[in-house]
Amino acid sequence: MQEFVAALLETAPQPYHPALVQAARAAAAGTAATPAAERARDAAVRARVLRAFVAADLTDADLAGTTGYGYGDTARDSYERLLAELFGAQRALARLSLVSGTHAIVATLAALVAPGERLLSATGRPYDTLRNAIAQDQASLVRREGVEYDEVALRADGTVDLEALRAALAEPTRAVFVQRSRGYAPRPSLGVAQCGQIVEAVRAVSPQTLVLVDNCYGEFVEEREPTHVGADLCMGSLIKNPGGGLAPTGGYVAGRADLVERVATRLYAPGLGDRLGPTLGLGRLFFQGLFQAPLIVREALRGLRFAAALFEQLGYAVDPAPAAPRSDIIQGIRLRDAGELVAFARGLQRALPVNARFAPEPGPVPGYIDRVVMAGGSFVSGATLELSCDAPVRPPFDVYLQGGLMAEHTAMGAMGAAQALLERGG
User: CB–CB of 48/83 below 8 Å?
Assistant: First the structure.
C-alpha cells in the first residue's frame, strides 16, 4: 500500500491537500503489515473454500443452466450443495429470484413466523429497510400478517444484552432475529463467536425458538459462519461477499433442511419447493465468484483498514479502529455535519469506475425513513462488495464505507473523499 499511495500522490493531476498527503503516508505506513491473527483467519478461510470446491467434483456440465421453470438445473443444485457445505448447513437455497439480502430475510421471516407468533430482535432496531418491512409499512409482517414483534435494546456500549434477551424469552417466541452488521446504528458488528453466545442464551431458556441470522457483509470474514455455531438459518445477498464481485444478482438462505424447504415453499408454491428456479446460464459467474470470494473479501478488509487509519489521522472517529478485529466489510466514519456527508460521497464518487462524473445528492430511498446520500458506481448495480458508501442524513452523521474489489481502489476512494472534506473546510 505504501508504494501505491506514493504513486498516487506523485501522479495526481491536481495536488492533494498537504494535510492529506501527510495523513495518507502515515496511514499507509501504519497498515503496511497485516495483523498475524487476520493472516491466519484468511488462510483458514481460503483453505476451507478450496477444499470444498475440490470435494464438490464439479464438471463443465455443472456450469451450464436452464431457462423457463428451471427443472433439473445442475448449476443451481451444485451451487446450493457447495454453499451448504461451506456454511456447515444441511441445505441452502440460492436463487436469482431473491434479489437482495432484505428480500431473503423477509421471505424467511414470512415463511417461519405465522400470524400471532412472536418475532424478537436480539440486536435492537434493525436497519431501516428491514424494520420497515417487519413493522412499519402497511404491508409489513406486523401490520398485515399479524406477527407480534419486539426488540431487545442494545447495551450502552452497543453490544447485545444477553441478560435482557433471556428475560424477554420468558414470553413465548417463535424466532429470534440477529443482525450481524451495524446497519445504520453506531454499534460494533457481531462476530461469529458472539452469534454463538446468542444461540446459547436462546437455547438455555427456550430451546424450541429459532435463531435466524442476517449474515450480510460477514461471509468469509471469519473462519466460521453463524450456522457453524448453531444458528438455525442465516440469510444474505449474493452480490455482497459470496458473489466475489461476479455474481450478477441473487440471495441465499442456508441452514436446517426443513426450514429451508419452508422458505422455498413460500418463495415458489406448495408442492414445488426448491425444484424450480433457472440460473439462465449464469452458473459460471456464481461458481467463480464464490471461488474467489475469500480473496476479494480480504482485499476489502485491507482497503478499509487503510481508510480507517487515514480518517483517524485526520481527526475523525472511526469504528472499527484500524488494527481492531473485523467481522464485516463495513467501515464507520463519524463526520461533523450533513454537508460533510455530501462532500464525502461526492469525493468517493469521483474515484468509482462507473458514473464517476455524477454528483450524489441526498434524497428519499424506498424503505428508508430519512433522506440518504449514497456514492455508488459498481459493475453490478447495488453490489456493496464493490466500493461504495451511504449515510442517512441525520445525527450523528456517520458515513458507512463498504467493500472494495481491490484494496488500492478503496485507498484511492478514501483519499478522494478526504480531499473533498479538506477542500470544503478550506
Answer: no
